[in-house]
Structure formats: C-alpha cells, structure tokens
Specification:
The complex is a heterodimer of chains A (about 180) and B (about 350). Chain A is mostly helical and about 180 residues long. Chain A has eight helices and no strands. In chain A, helix 2 packs antiparallel against helix 3. Helices cover about 15% and strands about 25% of the residues of chain B. A nine-stranded antiparallel β-sheet of chain B has the order 3-12-13-15-16-10-9-8-5, sandwiched between helices. In chain B, helix 2 packs across helix 3. The longest helix of chain B is centred in the C-terminal third of the chain and has 13 residues. The chains are: A mainly alpha (about 180), B alpha+beta (about 350).
C-alpha cells in the first residue's frame, strides 16, 4: 500500500502524499523529539522533512526506499535545528521511574543520570542511539540514514553507548541516601 | 541495574536505552503539524528529479534562526507562501567578469553588501516580470536584475524560449539558463558515470574543482581566470559531445557531479522518467569561487541553437548579480589570481 502511495505522490498526487504524511508523522515526530529533546524544534524538523519529501519526491529512485530516505531527510533537519541554537524551552528533563531500578530512590537517580547523559551527548551521537535503540536500525542502516560509512556509524553508537554507560556507572558508585549521602 | 560476581553494580545500558526511548517517545504528533504541512505542500510544486540543489548559504554569516520556524495556526496565507518560497528560493548569481575582456571589465569589484531598496523576492516558480530580485534566504542571499521573458524555478533562471514553461525539464531547443550549485564530487565520465566518481574526491580548492571538470571525458574543457560578483573565480567552459546519444549512457542519463549530502537513493543529475535527455552540443560555463573558505559554483548552460539575444541577456544578468555578503577581509586566499 505504501509503495502505491509513494508512486502516486511521485506523480504529483497531493492526496496520496497527504495520506503518506499522516501514516508516518507520529513516528517521525517521535524520532525528532528523541533526537532534539525539544518539542518545538522537533515539530519544526518534522514539518520541514516532510515538506522537503514532497518537494523532492521525484528524485527518489526506488519507491521502496521512501521510508529510509525520509528518515535521512529528518535527521538532516534535526541537525539543522540543533545547529540553529533556537531553543524555546529548556531541555526536557523529566524524571520518571524506569523499570530496571530496584528501589524508588534508585529509579529517580538512574533516570536523572540518563537525562543528564543524553543531554551531554552531541546531536550526532544522540541520533545514532535513537536510530539504533528506538528504530532498531542496524549499523549499515544507520550509515545509510546518516550518509556515513558503516564503520563510522558503529563508532558513533559505540562511543555514545560508552558515554551513557559511564554516566550510569558513575551514578552507581555514588553512595545511596541510605548509605550516608549528604542531604 | 545488574550486579556482577563481585557485587559491583553495572547497567544493562542497551535495554535501558531502548526502554527509555520507548517511554519518552510522544504518543502522538502535535495536532497542527499535519494541517500546517499540507497547507505548505498544497502551494508548492514538486521539483523535477534532476534539480536538487544543496542549500545555498552565503559564507561568513552565522546561522540565524528562522524568524517564525514552523507554520502554525497563526500562519496567514502570506506567511505560508513566504515560507514555502523561502525554502525553495536559492540561487542565481552574479557579476561574471572574465579576466579576459568581458562585460563589466577586468577589475575586482567591491561586493555589494545588500540589495537595493527596490529588490523584491522571487515569489514563485514561473514567469516573472522584469525587475530586480533578491533571494530572501534567512542568512543572506543575492540580487539579480532580470529582463522580460525569463522564468524562475527553484534557484534557476530560465529563458522563456517559446511562451511555455521551459523550466520543468532540462535540455531543449534554444535553452539558456543559470543557477548556483554546490558540488561535492565530479564524475570523471559523465556518460558512463557509474563507478567514475573521482577518487579520492575532488579537493576543496577552486582549482581542484575546475581541473576535475575540465578533465571530464569528452567535454573539451578549458579553464581561465575570471572575476564573478566581485570575487576572484575560475571560469570553466565545457561542451557536451555533439554526437552524444544519451540513451547509451549509464541509465540513460548524462551525470556530471553530485552535491554535498546527496543521497545515493536519488539521481539529481537527471532522471530519464522526468527530464528531457541532454542534448549534444550543449555548452556549460562554470564560475567557481571561494569566499572565506567556502566554494561556490555558478553554472550556466545553453544549447547550440540558443538565440544571441538570450545569451546577451544572460550575460547582463550575471553581471548584475550582487551577493548579499559582508565584504570579505583581505587575505592571500582572496587575492586575485595571477593573470596569465
């Protein structure tokens, strides 16, 4: 069905493109939000990527690659937004419990460290993590989406993962409140 | 959090990240995103496959955020149209002054820092009335004075040779056109281009690019020094073989270069499904310039049967182009190339 919509949109059928956009926008916006960690910037990046997709759709050689191409456009717009320095809200820093911690205090601390760790990553490293862990992209697929060699994609994922692990390990080494952490 | 044999705590980071991203992903998109998008796309024509220019941003100007960002419910039709135009509007250029005698003389001009007060932005693709136009790119732009009988199409000015829309596909009798491109690499053989990208890729200097184009198979290239829009440049003249049968080229396409970040999924150099075949005998004239370390290329082209009047008008327009840039600081890189 998607291929048919893409082919119709490539032929200039705006209704078909509208349907394509509606089908994919939630996922695109989620990816942008995770990369940019800013709702307004994510909305801008998503709209811009879909706009460029419509404008340049005729350049797509293989309709089956539409989604991969769109993700590439989205990443490009996310980078553009990140470079713009335009930030209308503070970095999202929700502190919510996650399922892996063993105790409520640990949950909040872990989440807090995760947020800090993600915020410290460059947008390029954060993008690699989002594509890998949220979209489930393989390293070659990440390379394709980012326009970089697979080896570079692997390096980015590895480096970002190491930085996140280091952030959590550092947190784990801190004494728990019950262990005498100053309050 | 897991614990190893020594009681050391360590995180299962892959699982944690996957779960965190899943939890953090918003369940739905903002309600106005799709309506605002479709309002823009409904006003925007799709570009032909061969024309996917990279964004043209003048050098030496720091990125400035867009004044409005995305469109929202407050967007008026004017804002919508302006935003759509700003996305598409990019190129045409300036003041080509060959160092060999040519229109405008032999001296480096002072780049004009801003458009005149009468310059108006290009409004949409299609025929445009004569006047002085300015690209409303958010980071700067360029200005050009256009006579009657020309069309504008996403960064390219096209001679209207038959009263019809000539811009929708490239390559046709009498065609004359020009626009800015940014080039990442060059095909050594534009006809049999598969596996012919120059390797290692063309270097960053003006000379690197000029040399690579001049060396393309079958193009009879020549390179001379020039001044363009007040900046030192290299002028490269290239031909398309007169007896070219484009159907014998790889995928039926004559492909000369790729742009930065160009996806391997796309074929901006030409698509046999959406563009007319390249016509043998076409002449390309490139002006390649370096402004504070960034390289730009003005590409002009015309056919063997293009009218003299259209060519004269194009030369006049090129001579009228002004870049909306601060005057570059003097440095060896911007010294005029040695004559001769």
């Amino acid at each position: 069905m998607q291929r048919e919509l893409v082919e119709r949109a490539m032929a200039g059928d705006h209704e078909a493109f509208s349907e394509l956009a509606r089908l994919g926008v939630r996922r695109l916006y989620a990816v942008a939000r995770l990369i940019l960690r800013d709702a307004d910037q994510a909305e801008d990046a998503t709209q811009e990527a879909l706009f460029v997709a419509w404008r340049d759709l005729r350049a797509l050689r293989d309709p089956d690659r539409y989604e991969a191409w769109l993700h590439r456009l989205l990443v490009r717009e996310c980078y553009r937004e990140a470079r713009s320095g335009r930030r209308r809200t503070e970095v999202e820093g929700r502190v919510r419990p996650i399922a892996h911690a063993d105790a409520p205090g640990e949950m909040h601390a872990l989440r807090d460290e995760l947020e800090r760790g993600l915020a410290r990553l460059t947008v390029e490293l954060r993008t690699a993590l989002v594509l890998h862990h949220y979209l489930g992209y393989s390293l070659p697929e990440i390379g394709d989406a980012l326009g970089i060699p697979t080896g570079t994609a692997k390096s980015r994922v590895h480096r970002a993962t190491q930085m996140m692990r280091a952030a959590l390990v550092a947190d784990a080494r801190l004494p728990r409140p019950s262990e005498g952490r100053p309050t | 959090m897991n614990t190893d044999l020594n009681g050391e705590r360590f995180p299962d980071i892959d699982r944690i990240l996957a779960d965190v991203f899943t939890e953090d992903a918003p369940p739905s998109e903002p309600p106005l995103l799709i309506p605002a998008l479709l309002a823009r796309t409904a006003l925007t024509r799709q570009r032909p496959a061969w024309r996917i220019p990279s964004r043209w941003l003048p050098p030496n100007i720091a990125w400035r955020p867009r004044p409005h960002g995305r469109l929202n419910t407050m967007a008026t039709p004017i804002r919508i149209a302006a935003a759509a135009t700003a996305i598409g509007v990019l190129a045409v250029v300036g003041g080509i002054v060959p160092r060999t005698p040519g229109p405008g003389g032999d001296d480096l001009a002072s780049p004009s820092p801003s458009p005149g007060p009468s310059a108006v932005p290009f409004s949409d693709a299609g025929a445009i009335p004569p006047g002085t136009y300015h690209t409303p790119d958010e980071a700067g732009g360029w200005t050009v004075t256009v006579p009657a009988g020309w069309e504008w199409w996403y960064g390219v000015l096209w001679a209207d040779v038959d009263g019809e829309t000539d811009f929708q596909s490239m390559g046709g009798p009498g065609e004359v056109a020009f626009g800015w491109w940014t080039v990442a690499n060059v095909f050594a053989d534009p006809c049999h281009w598969k596996d012919s990208l120059v390797d290692p890729p063309v270097g960053p200097a003006v000379q690197d690019l000029a040399t690579a184009f001049a060396a393309q198979v079958g193009r009879d290239g020549s390179v001379t020094d020039a001044v363009f829009a007040g900046y030192p440049a290299m002028r490269v003249e290239l031909s398309v073989p007169a007896d070219l049968d484009v159907t014998t080229c790889d995928e039926g396409v004559y492909r000369e270069f790729i742009t930065p970040g160009e996806s391997p999924l796309t074929l901006p150099g030409g698509d046999p499904d959406t563009s007319k075949p390249v016509v043998g005998g076409r002449i390309d004239v490139l002006y390649i310039l370096d402004i504070d370390g960034r390289r730009y290329m003005m590409r002009t082209w015309h056919e063997a049967d293009s009218s003299e009047q259209d060519l004269v008008e194009m030369e006049a327009m090129l001579g009228s182009i002004r870049l909306d840039l601060p005057v570059p600081s003097p440095s060896p890189a911007h010294s005029p190339p040695a004559a001769g």
